[in-house]
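FORM 12-B: Structure-to-Sequence Request
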């Protein structure tokens, strides 16, 4: 009865959040030198960390084949058999020359104020999520009703669902 629970993820923040409040020297020790820096327009600096990843996928195909056959098979009065056999095998490979190249950019921009303290960041990676689940009482009891009629005896499903419901309430994981 795992369908009694809904699963979902909760955003917990970004790994770069810990950089906020740190000094420029702390950042240089942790992140290393930036690819470049630029003025933030308010007397501070933006430290820019970027990484480009290029991936190329080429379309290629290959196949193997095999065939075996026996032909003939004439029986003569002396019990002898005359026949022939033939076997073919091989492989084929082809490349149609189609390839696709994509470039991905990962970045982290750290914004430093006039005192060289990080006050903000922008990034496209580093998000952290936690896995959660919650108990679905309506789905559970509908499932219990159906299973009693079609699959399982009520003596099994009703106690199980009751225990699961009570445990979910105690743990505070009831769906809203």
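FORM 12-B RESPONSE
SEQUENCE OUT:
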């Amino acid at each position: 009865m795992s369908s009694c629970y809904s699963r979902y993820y909760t955003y917990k923040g970004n790994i770069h959040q810990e950089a906020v409040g740190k000094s420029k020297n702390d950042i240089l020790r942790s992140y290393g030198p930036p690819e470049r820096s630029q003025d933030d327009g308010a007397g501070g600096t933006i430290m820019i960390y970027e990484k480009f990843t290029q991936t190329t996928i080429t379309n290629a195909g290959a196949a193997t084949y095999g065939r075996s056959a026996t032909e003939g098979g004439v029986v003569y009065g002396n019990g002898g058999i005359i026949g022939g056999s033939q076997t073919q095998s091989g492989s084929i490979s082809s490349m149609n020359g189609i390839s696709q190249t994509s470039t991905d950019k990962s970045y982290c921009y750290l914004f430093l104020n006039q005192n060289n303290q990080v006050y903000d960041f922008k990034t496209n990676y580093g998000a952290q999520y936690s896995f959660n689940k919650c108990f679905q009482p309506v789905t559970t009891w509908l499932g219990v009703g159906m299973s009693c009629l079609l699959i399982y005896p009520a003596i099994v499903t009703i106690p199980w669902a009751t225990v699961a419901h009570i445990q979910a309430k105690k743990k505070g994981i009831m769906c809203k």
